[in-house]
Amino acid sequence: MSLKVAIVLLACVGAIAAQHYYQQGHQQGHHEEEHYAPAHYEYAYDVHDDHTGDVHGQKESRKDHTTQGEYYLIDADGHKRTVTYHVDGKSGFIAQVHREPIKGYQAPQPQVHKVLAVPVQKAYYHH
């Protein structure tokens, strides 16, 4: 799963949640104070594709109004970029970025496939 696919997936989940929230508000017909259960989740994933060189991952956890997580990827120049972040209440998104070279890293080389040309014979038609 590429980072783009993960972002699109998270955007879709957010859109579905927003639609559900909107529909719930209209079904009640009047505004009441809404009560939610405390939010709590954890998730993590890692991708390591030797064919394309795509290496990245993320982990995140949330409890009530506190979210913390980390994601990493291998940049094209052979550095590992790690972003650690947290949100606590209304503090906003606070992130720290760390880059370090990977010893002995070699980017995957594009594979070249030879195609053999096969001579094509002309077709002759007789009337």
Describe the structure.
With 127 residues, the chain is of the alpha+beta class. The chain contains one helix and five strands, in the order αβββββ. A hairpin with a 4-residue loop joins β3 and β4. The mean pLDDT is 79.
Summed up, what is this model?
By secondary structure, the chain is α+β, with helices and mostly antiparallel strands. It contains one helix and five strands.
DSSP helix fraction:
10-25%
Main beta sheet: 5 strands, antiparallel
Strand order of the largest sheet: 1-2-3-4-5
Q: Evaluate the radius of gyration.
A: 25 Å
Gap between N and C termini, in Å?
A: 59 Å
Number of helices: 1
Protein topology:
Layout: H1 3-28, E1 40-49, E2 54-63, E3 66-74, E4 79-88, E5 94-101
Antiparallel strand pairs: 1-2, 2-3, 3-4, 4-5
Pfam families: Chitin_bind_4 (PF00379)
Signal peptide: 1-18
InterPro entries: Insect_cuticle, Insect_Cuticle_Struc_Prot
List keywords for this structure.
127 residues; Pupal cuticle protein; elongated; 20% helix; 1 helix; Insect_Cuticle_Struc_Prot; 5 strands
